[in-house]
């Protein structure tokens, strides 16, 4: 399997993506695919948090579907879309996506994937391991350098067992920033370390964008100081939501209107 992926960042519509992959009858409704010539090492649910990024999703699918097929993984895509007026809650969307994905299949590997991150190497294997995995270690907008040692953003992967053990993502991060640092803390608190790809395997290109209409979460530092105390109270175990489910040919769309009342945290 050749390493570099031919990156094409030009905009493309979903109609064109549908036409491109409609020629592959092995891709089932919701973007579910598995190899016919081998038993896949991992059954992988790709969870994508989403709001108003309609031009980014087809670019991501154009790259990820062929890469995952070359890696001979069984996979499906779950686009978890937040509607309503509340600030974007990326972490809570991942928790919702996990709960909904596990209703479909006994997945054993979860990939938490930002919609604007495009992998540059086929060798960046989207399977899980004995430790949680950070895939996006070298992003072009950071000059292909890891911003800081505890950086866990962009694209990460955990087994179902690992994700349940850490109680998922926190639900309390409204607005952008901080939830990945909290995930790092949760992983460490549970006795795990984080593995990363070697060399340039973890290189990604980012689709340029601004946090359009999204606010920065100013309370993140206060929550991060209490990560350990909050971990058992805020996550999968206090999650409530009401989802509207629709199916695209290439992904399952999970639409939710999130509010803080859906994931209340008792005092700690």
Automatic annotation (TrEMBL):
It is found in: Golgi apparatus, Golgi stack membrane. It catalyses: a beta-D-glucosyl-(1<->1')-N-acylsphing-4-enine + UDP-alpha-D-galactose = a beta-D-Gal-(1->4)-beta-D-Glc-(1<->1)-Cer(d18:1(4E)) + UDP + H(+). GO terms for biological process: carbohydrate metabolic process; glycoprotein biosynthetic process; sphingolipid metabolic process. InterPro entries: Galactosyl_T (IPR003859), Galactosyl_T_C (IPR027791), Galactosyl_T_N (IPR027995), Nucleotide-diphossugar_trans (IPR029044). Pfam families: Glyco_transf_7C, Glyco_transf_7N. SUPFAM superfamilies: Nucleotide-diphospho-sugar transferases. Residues 1-128 form the Galactosyltransferase N-terminal domain. One of its GO terms (molecular function) is UDP-galactose:glucosylceramide beta-1,4-galactosyltransferase activity. It is a single-pass type II membrane protein. Pathway: Sphingolipid metabolism; Protein modification; protein glycosylation. Its EC number is 2.4.1.274. Belongs to the glycosyltransferase 7 family. This is glucosylceramide beta-1,4-galactosyltransferase.
């Amino acid at each position: 399997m050749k390493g570099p992926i031919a990156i094409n960042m030009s905009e493309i519509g979903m109609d064109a993506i549908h036409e491109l992959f409609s020629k592959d009858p092995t891709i089932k409704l919701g973007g579910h695919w598995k190899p016919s010539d081998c038993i896949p090492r991992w059954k992988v649910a790709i969870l994508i948090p989403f709001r108003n990024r309609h031009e980014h999703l087809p670019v991501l699918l154009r790259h990820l579907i062929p890469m995952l097929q070359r890696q001979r993984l069984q996979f499906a895509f779950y686009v978890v879309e937040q509607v309503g007026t509340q600030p974007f809650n990326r972490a809570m969307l991942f928790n919702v996506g996990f709960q909904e994905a596990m209703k479909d299949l006994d997945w054993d590997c979860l990939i938490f994937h930002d919609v604007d991150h495009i992998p540059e190497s086929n060798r960046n294997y989207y399977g899980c391991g004995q430790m949680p995995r950070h895939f996006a270690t070298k992003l072009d907008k950071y000059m292909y350098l890891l911003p800081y040692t505890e950086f866990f953003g962009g694209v990460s992967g955990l087994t179902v067992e690992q994700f349940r053990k850490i109680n998922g993502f926190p639900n309390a991060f409204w607005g952008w920033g901080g939830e990945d640092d909290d995930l790092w803390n949760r992983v460490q608190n549970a006795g795990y370390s984080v593995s990363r790809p070697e060399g340039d395997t973890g290189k990604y290109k980012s689709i340029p964008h601004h946090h359009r209409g999204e606010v920065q979460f100013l309370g993140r530092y206060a929550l991060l100081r209490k990560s350990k105390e909050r971990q058992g109270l805020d996550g999968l175990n206090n999650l409530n939501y009401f989802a509207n489910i629709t199916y695209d040919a290439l992904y399952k769309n999970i639409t939710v209107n999130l509010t803080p009342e859906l994931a209340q945290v008792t005092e700690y």
